[in-house]
Specification:
Layout: H1 2-26, E1 28-30, H2 31-42, E2 51-60, E3 65-71, H3 74-85, E4 88-93, E5 103-110, E6 117-121, E7 125-129, E8 134-139, H4 144-151, E9 158-161
Antiparallel strand pairs: 1-4, 2-3, 2-5, 3-9, 4-8, 5-6, 6-7, 7-8
């Protein structure tokens, strides 16, 4: 009788471990997969969805300053897009709580009046804000995209002081 209970307990533990591993693996994705989901939500597959502009804001929390610019140069947009779609992500939550510190905000504006996508890029996390998708992701390769943005040679159109509230 004891042996039977032992096998039942071990069986239940194995099922829980396998379930957790499967669940954990389903949380891995790429920005490209999420971007395709965003497109599919709004448009037909046959339509062309191009990024026409990217509004970039950088918040330097340490110095209480912000900088912003609009990118409409197709080669810079393409380079940002290529870096984005190659970024491997792991879903962490639907909240942007705890995402403090210096960060970039990218506002992707699409051609033909399609809804825009707003993303907040922190050192090792990316928060995507969409009308139907609000998700925080951890970069699998720590801070690869954040570092890419830091190294971009952007000329800031505007500098502003952040409020101290």
């Amino acid at each position: 009788m004891k042996k039977k209970h032992y096998f039942i307990v071990v069986g239940i533990l194995i099922v829980f471990v396998i379930s957790y591993l499967v669940y954990d693996q389903t949380r891995y994705t790429t920005f490209e997969n999420e971007y395709i989901d965003i497109q599919n939500y709004y448009i037909n597959h046959d339509e062309n969805w191009n990024i026409s502009e990217i509004e970039v804001t950088y918040l330097d929390v340490d110095n209480n300053k912000g900088f912003s610019t609009v990118i409409d140069d197709s080669s810079t947009i393409d380079s940002i897009y290529e870096q984005l779609i190659s970024t491997e992500l792991k879903k962490t939550s639907t909240s942007d709580e705890g995402l403090g510190g210096n960060n970039f905000t990218l506002h992707l504006l699409y051609s033909e009046g399609n809804p825009s996508t707003r993303m907040h890029i922190h050192y090792d996390r990316i928060y995507i804000s969409e009308p139907f998708l609000h998700m925080t992701y951890k970069e699998v390769e720590s801070n690869k995209f954040y570092s890419f943005l830091e190294e971009l040679d952007l000329s800031w159109d505007r500098e502003f002081q952040m409020s101290s509230e």
